[in-house]
Specification:
The protein is mainly alpha-helical. It has five helices and no strands. It starts with a helix and ends with a helix.
């Protein structure tokens, strides 16, 4: 994949992260007191969005170096793999948050101790761990990139 296409893919996934954050805003507007896990997941979505924009910037800056630095091809493959994971996990998180929003809107007052909330707990924990892992791996790639230039 050429660097420009890869940068566009990174920005597309960052857009999904932003959409996920907007879903959290909607949830907070519907229900003022949301559980800590949802705050933590929102923070992870915000963080991964920021990291993705940083990755896109680095990819565009290094575009001219792709033929001269052999590690860039392997790095791009790793980034593509992480993008696929991030896209999937963020869309799944967004869907869960949207379902919670619908539940809040349809049943006043919504109780986060109820069945609909409890049945999402295990999946939310797994998503939080997965998104955190993706973010950490992208940060490692960024750190490696910056260390090559120093």
């Amino acid at each position: 994949m050429d660097p420009l296409s890869l940068a566009a893919s990174v920005i597309a996934v960052a857009t999904v992260a932003a959409q996920t954050c907007k879903a959290f805003l909607r949830l907070r507007a519907l229900h003022k007191a949301i559980p800590g896990r949802l705050h933590a997941l929102n923070n992870e979505a915000v963080d991964v969005e920021i990291v993705l924009y940083q990755v896109a910037t680095v990819i565009r800056e290094r575009e001219s170096l792709a033929s001269t630095i052999p590690s860039i091809d392997n790095e791009q493959e790793h980034i593509k793999h992480l993008l696929k994971q991030a896209y999937s996990k963020l869309n799944e998180l967004k869907a869960i948050v949207n379902r919670l929003c619908d539940s809040c809107a349809n049943s006043k007052p919504f109780d986060f101790r109820g069945y609909k909330w409890q049945k999402e707990q295990d999946r939310l924990q797994a998503l939080q761990n997965d998104i955190k892992s993706i973010k950490c791996n992208l940060n490692i790639i960024l750190d490696e990139t910056w260390s090559e230039f120093v």
